[in-house]
Amino acid sequence: MHPTLARVVVRRGPFPRVLTGCVLALTAASGRPALAADWYTGAETAGAQDSWIVSVDTSTTVSSQGSQFAGATATAAPAGTLLTSGLRLRADATIGSYRAGTGLGQQAEVAAMVGYGWVWPEAVLSAFVGLNVRRNEMPGLEASLRNAGGLKAALDLYARPTPGTMVHATGTYSSTFNAYYGRLRGGVAVMGGFLGPEVALLGDDYYRQWRIGAHWSGFQVGALQFGVAAGYLHDQTRKGGLYTTVDMRAGF
Q: Signal sequence span per UniProt (predicted)?
């Protein structure tokens, strides 16, 4: 979802990210000013928040089309904390499967990137670039084309225009199979989280899909933040269907 949008999901052919980046945010119900930097810190006390140097975002998406993806992203601030502007390091991993014609396509990816995060009172912008290795297996794809490596870039924006609203946009692109992923969400504070619409586009040289739905994200369960989303999707192979996404975020 955010910030380092790394996040999960991410995102990279037909898989979830996040943001990408999993997309979780705090609500005004936390009892203190809800700023964009909260995305990095969760609903902890100020002292605990200041010590956060690593965030871990996971995301899982399943659909009625027979596709399922899981991803994880770890983002670190090696020269400070995630509450301050500075250098960022990020590692992504994704695995999943999807229906491709009459067969089953499978996909896996790992990536390592370096970037920078700009932190303001109402917004966080992060940009990354690095290397990835990707494996695509699908009917008719030659063995020599299944494994490839290349460059990957990611951009993530999380903003809190007011204490009761949020906007999150994340996107990734990889030269490996021309894989891309983008997710845009907005919301208002409702019942301890943020409720609102979301849209997403994802695909690569062999697969394309778009989604439109609703999310409720940023609600706290113990030391973790969670988010859920559901809606309608359309892909080039099996056409229309339904999807569900579950995001989770932790920090250290």
A: 1-36
Structural domain span for residue 124 = 7-251
* Residue 6 confidence (pLDDT) above 60: no
Provide the β-strand partners of residue 251.
Answer: 55
What is the phi/psi pair of residue 52, to 5°?
-65, 120
Question: Is 36 within a domain?
Answer: yes
User: Which pLDDT score is estimated for 137?
Assistant: 80
Does the pLDDT at position 48 exceed 70? no
- Token pair for residue 139? 């009917």
CATH number of the domain encompassing residue 153 = 2.40.160.40
- Residue 15: what pLDDT? 36
In a domain, 129, yes or no: yes
The verdict on residue 126 lying in a domain is yes
DSSP codes of every residue in the chain: ---STTEEEE-SSS--EEEET------GGGSS---TTHHHH-S--HHHHHT--EEEEEEEEEETTS-EEEEEEEEE-TTS-TTSSEEEEEEEEEEEEEEETTEEEEEEEEEEEEEEEEE-SSEEEEEEEEEEEEEEE-TT--GGGSEEEEEEEEEEEEE-SSTTEEEEEEEEEETGGGEEEEEEEEEEEETTEEEEEEEEEEE-SS-EEEEEEEEEEEEEETTEEEEEEEEEEEETTTEEEEEEEEEEEEE-
- What is the count of structural domains for the chain? 1
